[in-house]
Each structure stands twice: as C-alpha cells, then as structure tokens.
Automatic annotation (TrEMBL):
This is PF03932 family protein CutC. Pfam families: CutC (PF03932). It comes from the Bacteria. The lineage of its organism: Bacteria, Bacillati, Bacillota, Clostridia, Lachnospirales. Belongs to the CutC family. HAMAP family: CutC. The gene is cutC. Signal peptide: none annotated.
Length: 251
C-alpha cells in the first residue's frame, strides 16, 4: 500500500475543524491566506490544538513578498521557530533565499537547529529558487522532511513535469508535497502522472459574511477583495480529496 498524506492549509479555527472532520492528515497553519499566508498568532494555534486532534505544522513567514529576509526578519523567524517548538507544534514550514536565488543554507541550518525535534518543511520559497535540483539536495542535507512545491509554477498541474522529476530524483529521501490549485479532479490526473501521493490543498470556498449591515466605501483590505466574502476550507472538498487518496491506496 502506497503511503499518502493530505495536508490542508488553514488560516482560521473553522477551516482547521472542517479539515479534521473531513479526514485530512495534517494542517499547515497560517494567517492571511489571501496573501499567500504568513506566521499565525499564538491564540490561533492554541485554539486549533484545542478543537482538533490533527497534526499541526506552522508556517513561518514574517511578511508578504519575497523570501530574502533582513537581519530583523531573520531574528523574528528564529524567535518564532523556538516559540512554536515550545508550544508543541508538530512541525515548522519555512524557507530563506539569498539575493542570487539560491537557498540560504547557513541561515536555514540555524533554523533547523532551533526547530529541534519538530518536522521541518521547505515552503514555496522553493518555487522561487534558481536551481530546484540543487535546492532539493540542500534541503535533504539539512535534514528537512518535506518540500512544498508547485513544481516552480503557480499550480501543481502546470508544474507537473518538474514535480515528476523531483519525485523521481528525491528517491524517498524527502517528501515532495504537491501544492497549488489542488482539488480531487486535479489529483486524479496528477497522481498517476507524477507518482506523488503527498498533497497540499486549501480546499477553500467563499463564505458569505454574517454581517447584514454593510458599509459601502469603508474597506481597509485588498482593493480587489470583497470584505464580506470570506475564505474557508470546504469539508466536502477535503472529503473528495481524501477519497482520491483512499482509491490510490486500494489499487
């Protein structure tokens, strides 16, 4: 039976509860998924641990944007990895690039040391690096457990050939976790093509706000986003993905 993992990216307690109820294996917990996710707050982490029994890896990303961090941002990352290790997170999801697009191995090594016995994953900084095969080997050498990647594309399906190559060359030394635009239909095509059965998805849908009074012209958020249309993980979408992986295991 082939090993499989379904990880759901969640940025609120309700999404984490929905993923747990649907049978996901793991949560990548973040805040502000609308901008790609940044480090979550302690209260969110504690509540997810309180209301779910699922494994939780915490995204460590100090800000929106690129993955080349200054000294203050690196200090923040070090504080965060130690904090979440002490709070009992199952893993941390992190990544730092140098200005030339290569993995910042020296700083990553320090974060890896501070992570202690937590699992560590290289997040989609991998998809912005200049040499993916070199970066994969560096992640293996660092002792990281996972690379989260869309095959250097925004969606896993667009990056399918790179994902296939990564999976083959990783040879089981590190988990290749396919990400980007994932749903059950994509998985049906992607898994047999690449061999990858470690899947990352948000399963998000738009949920209408509870607000009945809606003040026009008062938005403080992204100008392209309706503040009364909220993102939330769909229990049904995660169930569909779980079923795809079950079908693969039973073949």
């Amino acid at each position: 039976m082939k090993h499989s993992v379904l990880e759901v990216c969640a940025d609120c307690v309700q999404s984490a509860v929905n993923a747990d109820n649907a049978g996901a294996d793991r949560i990548e917990l973040c805040s502000n998924l609308v901008i790609g996710g940044v480090t979550p707050g302690i209260a969110l982490f504690k509540l997810v641990k309180k209301y779910t029994d699922i494994k939780v890896r915490v995204l460590l990303r100090p800000r929106y944007g690129d993955y080349c961090y200054n000294a203050y941002e690196f200090e923040q990352l070090k504080e965060e990895v130690q904090m979440y290790r002490e709070l009992g997170a199952d893993g941390s999801v992190m990544g730092i690039l140098r200005p030339d697009g290569r993995l910042d191995v020296e700083r990553m090594s320090e974060l890896e040391r501070l992570a202690g016995n937590m699992d560590t994953a290289l997040h989609r900084a991998f998809d912005a690096c200049i040499n993916p095969m070199e970066t994969m080997e560096q992640a293996v050498s660092l002792g990281m457990k996972t690379i989260l990647t869309g095959g250097q594309c925004g969606s896993a399906w667009d990056g399918r050939e790179m994902l296939k190559e990564l999976y083959e060359k990783s040879a089981g030394r590190i988990e290749i976790l396919a990400a980007g635009g994932i749903n059950a239909d994509v998985m049906d095509k992607l898994i047999p093509l690449t061999g990858i059965t470690s899947i990352h998805m948000s399963g998000k849908i738009e949920v209408d706000s509870m607000m009945t009074y809606r003040k026009a012209g008062s938005s403080m958020g992204l100008p392209e986003r309706d503040e009364y249309a909220l993102w939330q993980t769909s229990e049904e979408k995660v169930k569909q993905a779980v079923q795809v992986l079950k079908n693969v295991q039973n073949k």
